[in-house]
Every structure is written in structure tokens, then in C-alpha cells.
Amino acid sequence: MSPHHYPTFALDDIANLQESAQVEFKLAGGRDGNGKLPEGMWESYSAFANTLGGEIILGVKEEQGQFTIEGIVNPMPMLSEIWTILNDPKKISHNILAPTDVQIIEIMAKKLIRIHVPSVDVKLRPIYVGTDPYSGTYFRVGDADMHASHEQVKQMSHKAEITLSQRPPNNKTSLDK
């Protein structure tokens, strides 16, 4: 399976929209209704990256367990902001997204932003929000983003260190240098 291949996520069945272990909806409407990145989106980014991966769909409203497609009036500034935040190590530990992982999609004549977050290799974990892995690491349980405990972050970091230390040695000899 190629690194950018992921299962098709059907938004066309509006009546059955629901969040899951691999799907998170955010309204992203902002106070004026013209669109604003939701703060909680980054917790979902961390959670998906540290577990099975998933889809964050911006522009979907939840009300009493029912989801409706609201859309985003002007998604372009939000796209720019997403990439700015992803590439700022003070806000996100690692940008793991390829350009094809963030898309504007249109459903029922409304624009949404779809963000495919892959599950990252254990050697990159934890992926976290902010500069402190102990306060900014999340994982996904069911349809919820859960804050990782101090011990869980230590375990992820330890597994990453073990994985890196087990890489095969460079086979170059002193003559190859």
C-alpha cells in the first residue's frame, strides 16, 4: 500500500454521519461564520498520528449527536493557517502531512476541508501539540481524543529510542569514506 493511499471516506450518506476511532468532525465556523480553525483540531491530529491515523473533516456541525454539513465560506485562509501551524515546531512537534493530505472538498455545494492524518511510525512518536510532550500528547479511544498520561508518553518515547537504536549499522568501511 502506498504511503498516500487511504480508504475512501464517504460523506455522501448524510443521514449516517458519525465520528469514530478514525473520523473527527469540527465545525470550524468561527464567531462570524466565515471560518476559523478549531483549537481542538490539533488534539485530534496528535491522537490520530499516535494511534491508527484518521480523517479530520472541517465544516461539519454536531448538535445532540446529529451531524450536518455546514461548509466553510472561505477555506483558503484556513488552509494557509493549517500549513503555518504544522510547520511551526513550537505549535506541533512534527508535520507528518504531505500536500495531498489536506484538501478542499465540496459536498452539497458546500466546501469542507478534509485532513488525512496518517499513523506515524513508532520512531516518530509521540506527536504532540506545543513544546512539551507530557502536556501535549493525545491518543484516540473510540470517538474521543484522550490526553496521554506521563507514563504513556514515556513508553512512546522509549519505544522510539529502541527502534532508532536497532537500525542496522551503516555498512561503509573506512575505505568508503
TrEMBL record:
Gene3D superfamilies: Schlafen, AAA domain (3.30.950.30). Residues 163-177 have a biased composition (Polar residues). Pfam families: SLFN_AlbA_2. Residues 19-148 form the Schlafen AlbA-2 domain. Residues 152-177 are annotated as: Disordered. InterPro entries: Schlafen_AlbA_2_dom (IPR007421), Schlafen_AlbA_2_dom_sf (IPR038461). It comes from the Bacteria. Residues 152-161 have a biased composition (Basic and acidic residues). This is ATPase AAA.
